[in-house]
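Weekly structure sync, notes
Attendees: PL, DS, HV (note-taker this week)

Item 1: histidine kinase
DS walked through the input record. Source organism listed as Salipaludibacillus neizhouensis. Sequence as pasted into the shared doc:
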Amino acid sequence: MLDENALIEDNIFDNLPIYRYRILFWVVLVFIAAIFLQFLEEVIYVQTVFFTMLMILHLTLHSFSGSFKNNYAWFYFFLQCTIIFVSAFIMPHGAPAVLLGLLPILIAQSIHIFNHSLKVIFAVVLLYLPYSYAISVNYGIQELPFFIPILFFIMAIAVFYSILYVRQANAWRRMQYYLYELQMANQKIEDLTIVSERKRIARDLHDTLAQGLAGLIMRLEAIDIHLQNENTDRAKEIVQESMSQARETLQDAREAIDNLRSDSVTELNFVHDVEKEILKFTEAISIEVNRSFESLPPLSSLIKQHCIYVIGECLMNIAKHAQATNVSISICCKKAESIIIKIEDNGVGLNTSKIGKQVGHYGLIGLNERVRILNGEIDIKSEKGKGTRVFVKIPLTGSKKKDEK
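Item 1 (cont.): predicted structure, written out as tokens:
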């Protein structure tokens, strides 16, 4: 993850090409002005060659100023000062252009290189002294009152422009940083959406195909037992029931696929579908279910769908593992605020500490996920030999819909 402060405080001048182009343009103008002023008074070719080399070195150091920002800032400052003052002395008549053109730029840059008021003031004093000396040598000390105000005037303009430009550059770079953060956030949301969809598909596969196939296996096992006992009539009945269940499982799978493809959930008749789950259960293991259904307020499709899957999963677990002889289901509404589902059996019980830890056993994991989606609570209590009790409480408002989007 990028650090905003590091991004903003990085050397602006070294990373913005438009600034370097302007510096290049300005130094070229200073170079031309210095040669023009010098050649008006005296033509000196050798010094001009050295002056040209110094200006090239000056621009090169500007290009790599970011490398000097931390540990070598004073070294960079000293090198640039040396280049400017040597250039002023070898081009005596062009010295005003060199000094007044390059020193303010260096001072403006020192604000961002040193990033400390005392250091900048110290740098200005260091530049002021040799500047005064250079003017005195080339033009006489009597010209200082004329050149010093010009220096400070140009320096003020350069510093003001530099601060304004850097603020704009910082704003641009903040925008780049926040754009990057936004892209990362969008990518994370997309990844979470994919994970949520995978979990949703896994739940639907488990609640349709896996449960349906488990029921068919139980019926086939019953058929095998009846055939071994030469009870062919009962075996044929179970075969017919199995064919019917297989068709229902196929239909449920198709409905699950349609729900995944569609943007909305089909309205469900809650009590009717609960009765269908109970019928599947009683046909599979021939145990009557004691049920108690109170009058319920209108339920959302999301609550209906997940509650039916929760009830179906609990009944399937009882059929497969509980070896129960008595099963009861109660559904009621508490103060029109939440729906309460209780499912109890008198089977062999289970070890609740292993819930969600056994590889290949995803039903109870799916229960917790579905209840969490509805912002509800689930409590599973069980003891060996004393059966199992599942308590589910679902609020009628505030259900989470993010996993269904």
